[in-house]
Design brief:
It is a single chain. With about 50 residues, this protein is mainly beta. It contains no helices and three strands. The protein has a three-stranded antiparallel β-sheet, with no helix packed on it. It is globular and about 25 Å long. Pfam families: Rubredoxin.
Length: about 50
């Protein structure tokens, strides 16, 4: 499982943990996260995340 980091604020999306608050189940791969996902801390889109 990989982790993806928001290049704006440093929030980490961990595929193993998902983002239950956003309705993304644990184990959800980054490519399966909806395209309209936004960083829960700063609001930028998926395009502003990089693999850790």
């Amino acid at each position: 499982m990989a982790k993806y980091v928001c290049t704006v604020c440093g929030y980490v999306y961990d595929e193993e943990q998902g983002d239950p608050d956003a309705g993304i189940a644990p184990g959800t791969k980054w490519e399966d996260v909806p395209d309209d996902f936004v960083c829960p801390l700063c609001g930028v889109g998926k395009d502003m995340f990089e693999a850790e």
